[in-house]
Design goal:
By secondary structure, this protein is an alpha/beta fold. It is about 45% helix and about 10% strand. The strands form 14 sheets. The chain has a ten-stranded mixed sheet with strand order 12-7-8-13-11-10-9-14-15-18, with helices on both faces. Strands 31, 36, 37, 38, 41, 42 and 43 form a seven-stranded mixed sheet that branches. Strands 1, 2, 3 and 4 form a four-stranded mixed sheet that branches.
């Protein structure tokens, strides 16, 4: 609102004139625009875009009248079908589908409706340029302001329906006839809802990928009638790469955060639009919110139409590529009239086609040609950029309240600039999402990233946080990029794992986004950690606001305007924490001045109390804002007026007011003050004139007073509007916290009485108690800090509250706890004793009560000097109550000018002009004192002066305690005289009766006078009780006069009647003591409270229950005992009195009957009751003679005893006991409250005696005479002063006025500051208390969040642990690889085994995995190979090949699995006998005889003997090696650890012996004719080649080994090598077995293959060797050392030589810790030639291989070959 328009001088008449002119203008425009009633131009929010949403039962549409631009605008579009004219209906109801619809004319943005005949878009656009849209941001937003006038129209005329609180267009599709794009409506339906019964119509448009974004935005504004929102939220997510959230709480929080943000402000939400992934989550949230709104609207509409709540409209736009929609062929725009009917059946798994989400309101379907782009389309990015500018028609402002003319003022059109903020929300996201984010960053638009949601969001969040923390380029290059690459491969393995270029490009885009996200002070990324303990996606609006603020450019130009806009946005979003952190707590800005409009919006809107508190903390002055028009505006335009209208106006004032009806122009003066008077008893509390004067700076008193009053008025407004939080915020800053808290408490208590709903009444009572507790808390703090100042506060009249004191307000509010506070009770005690104090003299064992001392001093005077003391201020004592006295009980005072001045400073402020004038004159006199006089006063000692006796007597009689005891004494005298008058025999004593009657009359006069004064001073005090008392006394006086006094002259009554009247009067006056005098006693007072409760509740309930048994018992007992008793009054008396007196006296004498008359019952025959001729319906009408004697004679019977006994048992035992129990329970309940209730009642009693005249009745007549004389004297003196003033023209000087205001301000400001400090301290204690109360819930929430955080950290720690384990494994593997490389490069290896620091260790036996399996060996490094080296973590696996997997020939030679057998034995030992039944027996473990030779006879093999050599061939230090045994009794590998236990693939535990043959020759070169041309030389040495055979059992890789065989013990080793050579090399399977061959035979066997003629073929017979063994052995000499031997033969004539190459440990991959290979290797060299080619079989894989440095054979056989080459001096 304009400042001029807010001036208080403007009246409502001008507004009415403006409204009338506006209606006329609109009517003329309507007539000119629609001459044939064919069309009504729709407003900006048609097609389902209402600015305010209403109930489904109260569908609201609106008509906006506008002038025509040209005559052609009244014509229909050529494509529009012709329809009949539609008149505008007024107050006409039509029932359509069982409900009413209505049209509402809305002030501000109007809700539209459209006619069947419509203008073309071009015409509409022309009209739109001329429309005026009323914007009134000061009063209410256009979304919530609805005018009162409503008109009912037919359902066929409705154009916009608010269905489910989401605007949906119910129009036909004629509007789309000339649309530039294919468009229309979509009907989503399911099996549960028929299409015709329930459809949700959505809008769609199909555009091509190259369509300009401006054209699409223009289409949305023209055809969909959409207008730019306040913010656009674009949800960036992925569909194909979406991973469902496992945390349901996170999903719920996300949905609630979306809805909260949408409900906070007008927002567009842009998604992918498909029915899956994040779009579906948002759709589900929208659907749930729609259902909630429908339910709430329906419930409220059933109560009253004005209770229907209005919500922000929900607009969800889906931008979807056409090629991903299942039913894409439907969106051609062909069926515009009927729309498209779509039924979602579900999405096929692993399909690239999706369905649309039915909960979106609009769909933009993009015909994208690039199918690889999927959901990321260029047009979406362009549209989001376009949405930053205005969409739809422009807003034109009109000033509603102008100081001058009412003409419209059009604002100059501003330059095109970004008006709407667009924020991106990245949730998970696909790889294409990075390009979307990059588009945002290039256009300087913020993006909120949900870290922890997965996908691109995690990648961007991680990279951005790392780059913010470390800006080192090396860090990015060497750490961040590799880590990002790893994360990309993990998150998107199918997309980037095998595509290095795409992965690198994707990573670089992520880094580019992170670099663009920070520019100077602008930050375009806002990271929201969804996995932390403090993560809460419900506050999504907070992060959106933070993103907007972070991306703003900080500038000093127009920073105040920027602050205003930011505050406006924060206020709309209701984020006070953001206001503090982003605006008010910033150091780079100066002091921020709060605008009045913002403060007004904070008051009008709900839940903005924290903003009011922040604005007041920033120094906002309420009185500068609050004038009478603004105050009235607060009552009219507040968001929730329902309580004020329904309770305050209708219930309290009895007015019938509509919820939207404007208040009367004189509402503040008349209705509001009358309302406050009814509730509080305050007269003219609201002063509009003073309010408006203070707002413009023309202060009535001073700014501090103006601010205090404005805050009081605003607090009362908050209470009347039921804004409890706002009332608390305002109370926190008041100057009079106790008084204002009591006022609020009283208001709530009175409002609770007018609330019909139980929950509302309970809420009001709770609020009343809270504010009462606030007053009590501040009082307690002030009392503990400064009791004297607190006493002064209690008695200080409050100018703002009709000069009431705080304790009076508390009493009016009925707040017992406040008056029962020790501070108030001590203050009451001071008031009770007035200016006197009763002394206590030490008289030993004698102690006199105070009442005796006071009465003795009153009647005998001289005890004043002994027992009565006076306070020091008694010299200035006047008959003025409420003054606090300081000092002790000394009666001596200071009698000098200085003491008088000090006493004056302690007095209350002057309350009248005359008192103020006297004070100023005294002050002037003090200033005129000379210096000499001042020095005299400085050195003058105070002169103590005794109070005169008359002063003491006056002060004694003026004390309320004296008045109480004297009045009570006189009342007892009155009761004594009354008793004498009642007991006086016969007609009484005339003089006594006359005296008593006059005394009672004086009591009545005094009671009337006190009641009248109490009513004038205390408006809230109830008058029912004193009025009833007055009436009863008046009745008694009249009866006393008529029945007792007048009969002394006129005899017309009897004595008994007068005695009865006097007795009743005596009882009344005695009972009167209970409520007048006894409650002041500390003992009797609480007891009376308890008795009152017991009688009021328990005894009444007892009587109600007792009446049931009393009447039933009395009737039945009377009927049984006296069956013939005659009817009459006596019968009724007996029926009622007998059971009643039975409670006290038990009458049982008549149960046995009466002997004198009981025999008459025998005369009554059984047929007595039979009807005769004279029967008249009852025999009692004419009793017979037999009945008359027994009518009053008791009848004895058993049933009489039973009836009487049951009655006595119930009444005397049960009911009486129950009554005592009820009394005890009541006493227990009331015991804690009785003392406080008594203290509360004590205040009224003390105030009553304080306000009484000093003399009691009947002496009070003297006081009345003195008052009359004083009044006459004052009247005469007043006339005299007035005459003198008129004659002298005396005026008060301006200096006197200024000085009086200054004195008042200075004195009162100190009090205000003190009580402010007390209230602040109380608030701190309350905050601590609330924190403690909420601590448990807060701790529970924190623990829950910490548990989730710990789960997350546990997962992270597990990942870290796994990575550490993986790293350790990698390090171990790397170390193993390095050692292997080292071993391969080491030239000192012996037969393939490494020589580490002089110790031989195996290498191949530690290779993983174990041959033929996937078992990985335990990593064993070189230093841990020896058993002597401790290896604590060594825990290898156990593996033994099952016997069944060996070949049939070898199976008999396989050792028993000792480890398995021992394990099975342990399991068998734990089993019971029943469990062992059916299990196979376990084999016994044989005696292995380790380190020795064992001979076994095989019965199954023809009784052949098997020699098992379990000795080791390894020699250490020229000594045979004896291997050790492990704890299980198994042999340990003498060469050290291998990384696996068990027997492995070997057949024996311990050593497994084999024998190998190395047949070598020189490698020859061949010419072109394939003829030998010499030997092959490398590096000057001949190349050696050897025979290798292919090893079985490995299909993945061809592995060669040396020919040889396994020694099972059936044949000699040399027989085995010869037989194996024939089988493997020559492929001769049928070989004659010769098990006893020796070395000579073996040498002879291999020597036969040596020849000079390579083509010669010889045959070999193992039984006829050419050379005998002795001949061969004779030429062989040598000795064994270690594992090598020099045993060899010299080369013969054919160049053949034989030598033992190696005998010892074989580094075989099959070796384990408990089984290993040992070999004996012979080298047979053919220096000149051989004939192996003639017999070698190449089919079995036998071949010649060259001895090279990298020769590869099984195990360490390659090292053995290289050793042979070194012996032959060949290249190796």
């Amino acid at each position: 609102m304009d400042d001029k328009g807010s001036d208080w001088k403007e009246t409502s008449q001008t507004n009415n004139i403006q409204e009338t002119e506006l209606e006329k203008k609109e009517k003329e425009d309507l007539d000119s625009a629609t001459p044939n009633n064919e069309e009504v131009l729709s407003d900006d929010s048609s097609c389902g875009e209402q600015n305010s949403e209403h109930s489904v039962h109260d569908t609201i549409t609106s008509v906006l009248h506008m002038p025509l631009v040209g005559p052609q605008q009244s014509e229909c579009s050529p494509q529009s079908p012709a329809h009949s004219p539609r008149p505008i209906l007024t107050s006409q109801q039509s029932i359509v589908s069982g409900r009413f619809t209505r049209t509402s004319y809305i002030s501000g943005d109007t809700v539209n409706h459209s006619s069947p005949s419509r203008l073309s878009p071009a015409q509409l656009h022309a009209v739109e340029t001329e429309e005026d849209i009323i914007e009134n941001n000061e009063y209410a937003s256009s979304d919530t302001t609805v005018d009162d006038s409503t008109e009912y129209v037919e359902s066929a005329q409705i154009t916009v329906t608010s269905f489910g609180a989401i605007s949906t267009d119910t129009q036909d599709s004629a509007r789309y006839d000339d649309a530039p794009f294919p468009c229309g409506n979509i009907h989503f339906w399911s099996e549960a809802h028929h299409i015709e019964e329930h459809t949700t119509k959505k809008h769609y448009v199909t555009v091509s990928a190259d369509t300009p974004s401006e054209a699409v935005a223009h289409f949305m504004g023209t055809y969909w009638k959409m207008r730019s929102p306040k913010i656009v939220l674009s949800v960036i997510s992925g569909v194909k790469h979406f991973r469902p959230w496992k945390n349901n709480r996170l999903k719920e929080q996300f949905q609630k955060g979306i809805i909260k943000a949408a409900n906070t402000t007008e927002m567009w939400i842009i998604t992918d639009g498909v029915d899956t992934a994040v779009s579906k989550m948002i759709g589900e949230a929208i659907k749930e919110e729609r259902a909630r709104r429908e339910c709430k609207q329906l419930q409220l509409s059933q109560l009253a139409h004005f209770k229907v709540q209005q919500f922000q409209k929900l607009t969800v736009i889906g931008i979807v590529p056409k090629n991903v929609i299942t039913y894409s062929q439907e969106f051609q725009g062909n069926n515009k009239e009927m729309g498209i009917n779509i039924k979602n059946v579900g999405i096929m798994p692993n399909s690239d086609l999706y369905e649309l989400n039915p909960d979106h309101t609009h769909f933009i379907i993009v015909d994208e040609e690039d199918t690889e782009r999927m959901f990321f389309t260029n047009i979406r990015c362009q549209l989001e950029q376009q949405f930053q500018y205005s969409v739809g028609r422009r807003r034109r402002l009109r000033r509603l309240f102008s100081w001058g003319s009412d003409d419209q003022h059009e604002l100059p059109e501003p330059a095109i600039k970004k008006m709407v903020p667009v924020v991106g929300l990245l949730v998970q996201g696909s790889p294409r999402g990075v390009e979307h984010v990059l588009t945002y960053l290039n256009d300087k638009m913020p993006v909120v990233i949900l870290k922890g949601s997965g996908g691109v969001a995690d990648l961007l969040a991680y990279a951005f946080e790392e780059l913010v923390e470390r800006t080192d380029p090396d860090f990015e290059e060497h750490f961040l990029k590799p880590e990002l690459t790893r994360m990309i491969c993990k998150i998107y393995p199918e997309d980037f794992k095998d595509n290095d270029m795409a992965r690198t490009e994707f990573r670089n885009k992520i880094l580019q986004c992170c670099h663009l996200a920070i520019e100077d002070e602008q930050i375009f990324f806002t990271i929201v950690n969804t996995q932390g303990w403090d993560a809460n996606l419900k506050d999504l609006d907070k992060y959106l606001l933070k993103a907007l603020f972070n991306c703003e450019r900080q500038t000093r130009v127009k920073w105040r305007e920027k602050i205003f806009k930011d505050l406006q946005l924060i206020l709309d979003w209701n984020r006070p924490d953001m206001a503090l952190s982003m605006i008010f707590h910033r150091d780079d800005w100066g002091k921020v001045k709060v605008d009045k409009k913002l403060f007004e919006q904070a008051l009008l809107k709900l839940d903005r109390e924290e903003f009011v508190e922040i604005f007041l903390d920033q120094g906002f002055l309420i009185h500068k804002y609050l004038n009478h028009k603004k105050y009235k505006l607060l009552f009219e335009k507040a968001e929730d007026r329902e309580f004020f209208v329904s309770v305050c106006l209708e219930k309290v004032l009895g007015q019938i007011v509509d919820i939207d009806q404007e208040l009367d122009a004189n509402f503040l003066v008349n209705d509001l003050n009358r309302l406050i008077f009814k509730l509080l008893g305050l007269v003219d509390f609201v002063q509009p004139y003073e309010m408006s004067m203070n707002s413009v700076g023309l202060y009535v008193l001073d700014p501090a007073v103006a601010e205090r009053k404005a805050l009081n008025w605003l607090t009362v407004w908050a209470v009347l509007m039921n804004r409890r939080k706002l009332a608390k915020v305002l109370w926190n800053r008041c100057d009079e916290p106790i008084a204002l808290a009591l006022i609020c408490s009283n208001l709530y208590k009175e409002l609770a009485r007018n609330c019909t709903e139980l929950f509302l009444r309970t809420e009001m009572e709770r609020n009343a108690k809270q504010f009462g507790d606030k007053a009590l808390g501040v009082l307690d703090i002030g009392y503990m800090d400064s009791s004297e100042q607190t006493y002064s506060m209690l008695s200080t009249p409050l100018k703002d509250f009709n000069n009431k004191t705080c304790i009076e307000i508390a009493h009016d509010a009925g707040y017992i706890g406040f008056i029962a506070h020790p501070c108030c009770q001590k203050w009451l005690t001071r008031k009770l004793f007035g200016a006197i104090q009763v002394k206590e003299l030490d008289l030993g064992f004698i102690s006199l009560p105070d009442w005796f001392k006071i009465l003795a001093s009153v009647f005998f005077i001289f005890p004043i000097y002994v027992w009565i003391g006076f306070v020091p201020k008694a010299i200035r004592w006047k008959k003025k109550r409420g003054i606090t006295f300081k000092g002790d009980a000394d009666s001596r005072i200071l009698d000098d000018a200085e003491s008088e001045s000090e006493d004056e400073d302690d007095e209350n402020l002057p309350t009248s002009k005359s008192l103020l004038q006297n004070e100023l004159e005294t002050f002037k006199k003090r200033k005129k004192l000379t210096v000499r006089r001042r020095i005299q006063h400085a050195f003058q000692k105070p002169v103590e002066k005794e109070l005169p006796l008359w002063k003491k007597i006056y002060l004694l009689w003026s004390a309320p305690i004296t008045t109480f005891w004297v009045t009570q004494t006189m009342y007892f005298a009155f009761l004594g005289l009354f008793c004498v008058a009642v007991l006086w025999p016969t007609c009484g004593n005339f003089y006594l009766d006359l005296t008593l009657w006059l005394w009672t009359s004086i009591i009545l006069i005094d009671l009337v006078q006190r009641t009248y004064r109490k009513h004038i001073k205390h408006k809230a005090v109830p008058l029912l009780k004193p009025c009833c008392e007055i009436f009863l006394i008046m009745v008694f006086l009249v009866l006393y006069l008529v029945l007792r006094i007048i009969p002394h002259w006129f005899n017309y009554t009897d004595i008994i009647t007068s005695k009865v009247v006097l007795s009743i009067g005596l009882i009344f006056f005695f009972y009167r003591l209970l409520g007048i005098y006894l409650p002041i006693s500390t003992t009797l007072g609480p007891m009376l409270v308890r008795m009152n409760r017991m009688i009021k509740y328990d005894f009444v309930d007892f009587i109600r229950m007792f009446l049931v048994f009393m009447i039933s018992g009395g009737v039945t007992i009377q009927a049984i005992l006296y069956p013939n008793y005659p009817l009459g009054i006596d019968l009724i008396k007996r029926v009622l009195t007998r059971p009643l007196f039975a409670m006290f006296l038990t009458q049982i004498a008549d149960l046995d009957g009466d002997v004198s008359c009981s025999h008459h019952y025998k005369n009554v025959s059984e047929g007595f009751c039979t009807a005769d001729v004279n029967f008249r319906g009852s025999h009692y009408a004419n009793p017979e003679a037999v009945i008359v004697p027994i009518q009053k004679c008791p009848y004895s019977s058993l049933f009489g005893y039973l009836i009487t006994i049951q009655y006595l048992l119930i009444c005397k035992l049960v009911l009486v006991t129950l009554l005592f129990a009820m009394f005890a329970l009541t006493i227990t309940k009331v015991d804690n409250e009785a003392s406080e209730i008594w203290k509360f009642q004590r205040y009224a009693l003390i105030v009553d005696f304080e306000e009484r005249l000093n003399l009691p009745p009947p002496l009070v007549i003297i006081s009345y005479i003195c008052i009359l004389v004083k009044k006459i004297y004052n009247k005469i003196m007043g006339c005299k002063r007035n005459c003198s003033n008129i004659c002298c023209c005396r005026k008060k000087t301006k200096a006197d006025e200024e000085m009086s205001h200054k004195v008042q301000k200075n004195r009162r400001s100190e009090d205000y500051n003190y009580w402010k400090k007390c209230s602040i301290e109380f608030l701190r204690t309350q905050e601590l208390k609330e924190k403690k109360e909420k601590m448990a819930a807060l701790h529970a929430e924190i623990i829950t969040n910490l548990q989730e955080d710990m789960r997350l950290q546990k997962k992270n720690m597990k990942r870290i642990s796994d990575r550490i384990v993986e790293l350790e494994r990698t390090l171990g593997t790397s170390r193993m690889y390095l050692e292997n490389i080292y071993h391969k490069l080491d030239k000192q290896d012996v037969h393939g085994m490494a020589n580490r620091k002089g110790q031989i260790i195996h290498v191949a036996a530690r290779q993983s995995p174990y041959p033929g399996t996937s078992i990985a060996r335990f990593p064993v490094f070189d230093k841990y190979v020896p058993w002597e080296t401790s290896y604590d973590v060594y825990d290898p696996k156990i593996y033994t090949l099952a016997t069944e997997k060996f070949s049939d020939e070898e199976r008999i030679y396989v050792d028993l699995d000792i480890i398995l057998v021992k394990k099975l034995k342990e399991e068998y030992a734990k089993m019971t006998e029943e469990e062992l039944i059916g299990l196979p027996p376990l084999p016994s473990i044989p005696n292995m005889k380790w380190n020795s030779i064992l001979t076994v006879v095989h019965q199954t093999n023809g009784g052949r003997k098997q020699i098992i050599d379990r000795r080791s061939w390894i020699s250490m230090d020229d000594q045979p090696c004896r291997y050790q045994l492990d704890p299980n009794g198994l042999p340990l590998n003498p060469m050290g650890r291998t990384g696996i236990r068990g027997k492995g693939n070997l057949w024996r535990w311990g050593p497994n012996h084999v024998i190998k043959a190395v047949c070598t020759r020189w490698r020859q070169k061949y010419n072109q004719d394939n003829q030998p041309s010499g030997y092959l030389y490398v590096e000057g040495k001949r190349v050696l080649e050897f025979i290798a055979t292919q090893r079985d059992g490995n299909n993945l890789e061809t592995v060669y080994e040396l020919p040889g065989g396994v020694l099972h013990g059936l044949s000699s080793p040399y027989s085995v090598v010869c037989e194996s050579f024939l089988k493997t090399v020559f492929d001769e399977n049928e070989v004659e077995s010769k098990p006893t061959l020796d070395q000579g035979d073996m040498i002879q066997f291999f020597a036969q293959f040596a020849t000079l003629n390579v083509n010669a073929k010889t045959s070999f017979s193992m039984g006829n060797p050419e050379l005998s063994t002795s001949q061969v052995i004779a030429g062989v000499t040598g000795s064994r050392t270690s594992s090598r031997t020099s045993l060899r033969t010299e080369a013969d004539s054919q160049g053949f030589s034989a030598s033992l190459l190696y005998k010892g440990y074989l580094d075989d991959p099959r070796n384990t810790d408990n089984a290993w290979m040992e070999a004996e290797v012979w080298n047979f060299h053919y220096d000149l030639g051989d004939n192996f080619e003639l017999r070698m079989s190449e089919e079995n894989g036998t071949t010649w291989k060259e001895v090279l440095p990298n020769v590869k054979l099984f195990g360490n056989e390659g090292a053995i070959i290289q050793e042979a080459a070194r012996i032959q001096d060949a290249y190796c």
